Amino acid sequence: MKDSMAPLKVGIVVIISAIAMVYMLSQVQEGMGGDAQGYRVFAVFDDVGGLAEKSSVSIAGISVGRIEKIELAGDKAKVWIRVQTPLKSDARIAKRQASLLGEYFLQLTPGYTGSPLADGDQIKFIDYDTPPAALMNDLKGIAQNVVDITQNLKRALGGTEGEQRLIGIIKNFEGVAQDIRDSVSGNHEKFDAVVDNVVAVTGEARQFTKEFRLNAREILGDAKYVVRSVRAIVGENTATVQEGFEGLKGAVGRIQRALDKLESTLEATESITRKIDEGKGTIGKLINDDRLANNVNGIVEESGDFIRKITRLQTIVGMRSDYYASRGTVRNALELRLQPKPDKYYSLQLVDDPRGATSFMETVTSTSASDEDPVTREQQTVTEDRFRLSLQFAKRFWLTTGRIGIIENSGGLGIDLHLLGDDLEFSTDLFSFDANLNPRQRAWGTYNFFNHLYLSAGVDELWNSEIRDVFFGFGLRFNDDDLKTILTTAPTPSL
User: Contact, 125 vs 108, CB < 8 A?
Assistant: First the structure.
């Protein structure tokens, strides 16, 4: 009996195994994307190299759909995908590389503030990664530039002679800087003394000309009187004293000629003094015009102000890195601050933000086909991984500093509150007024633990709750005196 039931049992086991195999295959097929549930949306790419139909579409590394179809749309590629998760009109899609072997997949960001997408709608926001070939070409060019620079430095500074030449150049710079500082600080009193001497000389020259003019007029009057008296005496007593003064005729003639010359000399002297008194000629202008002394005083004052401004100008260099908790990304910033006064400075920042720079593109297509719209508009927003620039002017009022200018490629303003002797600061920035439904506001606080090191923490996107994120980080800050100390005390590398 047992032997006759054995074939029946084997048949039952085979049937059950076949049913189980069919069920498992159906489950595997369903997991591979054969499920027709969900809805279809599309996106238009400039390049779909590395993508294939049935490729994965994921959000945060979790598969939410598959590529259903790839077709040509003019000079671009139209990619249809079927997804099983709700998407909004501000959703973003990006082509990402899964490995260095060239395998790609699509990564979705579902969107936060837009309206829901329906079946057949378009995802308009496309993100592009830099191709590995372009990165390799850039790295190749950078490597070649580094090689050229090192070779040039080796030729210029190689060996003991080059090292001595570099040390000599540094010493010469230090000597020149010290000489300028000594000249500015040591000659300030000399400039004041020169101005005082010029004022004193011009005063004495004016007094001398006044006294000389009075004395010259008295001498001229006396000489004229003597000449008239001599003429009268000689003319009235010619007959009487002709014999007695016969021998004196020659002397009188010589005296007459001498008096004539003296009279012409006195007249010329009077003319010169009159011109000097009227301010004519170089000497007259020098004595009577006060503008010379005023100009000298103005030049000295302006030179002093210019030198003081140069010596007061502070150059501050800062570096900062912040880690965003939700995104898992790092924002880096390099700052150059020019501070002519303690309560005013100009700030230039170069920011490496993971968000990159976003540009808007609109394509208008006209057609004469009767079954199509005559004008078709296609809008596209592209985000590129590029640096952002900030340029601000800051003015401090007691414990508060106001800032205004360009903040990360858009107009904006900011406020800083200083406490605990400027060791503790609370700051906020408001900018990017047209990027989202609400402007972007960032608020943070910093605390200086050492002279040059500080820690920071804050919140970004205060008004946009969907993309709000917290961050924390640290930064370094040096002024020109600190940099000079570091550079002068650092050891010289040997080549």
Answer: no
Residue spans per domain, the chain: 36-129, 133-186, 189-307, 314-489
Sheet holding 125-127, edge to edge: 39-45, 76-83, 62-73, 56-59, 104-109, 92-97, 125-127, 375-384, 357-366
The residue among 287, 292, 254, 257 whose CA lies nearest residue 272 is: 287
- From residue 235, alpha-carbon distances to 102, 239, 259 in Å are 133, 9, 17
* Pairwise CA distance, residues 426 & 447, whole Å: 9
pLDDT one-digit tens code per residue, 408-465: 889 999 999 999 988 999 999 999 887 667 898 999 999 998 778 999 999 999 998 8
**pLDDT for residue 409:** 87
Other Cβ atoms less than 10 A from the Cβ of 385: the count is 14
- Which of helix, strand or coil describes residue 229? helix
- pLDDT tens digit string along 342-397? 899 999 999 988 776 555 566 777 777 666 667 677 766 556 666 889 999 999 99
Give the CA distances from residue 380 to residues 1, 90, 375, 383, in Å, rounded to whole numbers and listed in that order.
79, 11, 17, 10
Q: Is 104 helix (H, G, I), strand (E, B) or coil?
A: strand
Inter-CA distances, 135 with 11, 50, 75, 140, 250, Å: 63, 17, 25, 8, 114
Q: Are 449 and 474 in contact (CB under 8 A)?
A: no
* Residue 122 phi, psi dihedral angles, 5° rounding: -110, 140
Of the chain, the end-to-end C-alpha distance in Å amounts to 98
pLDDT per residue as tens digits for the range 247-290? 566 766 777 787 888 888 888 787 787 777 777 777 666 666 66
For residue 460, CA distances in Å to 209, 333, 474 come to 79, 15, 16
- Give yes or no for residue 5 having a pLDDT over 60: yes
Top CATH class of 314-489 equals mainly beta
Q: Hey, how many other C-beta atoms are within 10 angstroms of the C-beta on 123?
A: 24
Percent of the chain whose pLDDT exceeds 90? 21
